[in-house]
Amino acid sequence: MWVQTRDFFQRRDPTQLPRAESDPKHKMALVFRWYLGLSSRWANSGDPARQLDYQVWCGPSMGAFNEWAKGSCLEKPAGRGVVVVALNLLFGACVHLRRLALRQQGVTLPDAAFPLAPMSRGELEKRLG
């Protein structure tokens, strides 16, 4: 791995190499950086030969989504199709905006009046008509 990493940094930032040759921790950090860059590229390009190496970068939003989806049809990755996730997010945004509009008009309703739990595609289609 070091040979490929060294070749990459020779082109990218050769000033890193002298330190890496004398500092094993820096050398390891460069290998990790090299691999991390490739793993996201493999995921973005959908390289099937590197599927086990895919890395998709995300922030706290992924954890928040997982917490929201817990116990619902979206809990398992198999239930997370693009359409059903997008419809849930759009529906949730509409519910949230409606609640804000009502508040601005002085109407306060309980949380139960604004369902934000994830729904299946069939449930969403029934609600949306």
From TrEMBL:
Domain [Acyl-carrier-protein] S-malonyltransferase-like inserted helical: 1-54
Pfam families noted in UniProt: FabD_helical_ins
Protein origin, superkingdom: Bacteria
The protein, known as: Enoyl-[acyl-carrier-protein] reductase [FMN]
Organism expressing this protein natively: Fimbriiglobus ruber
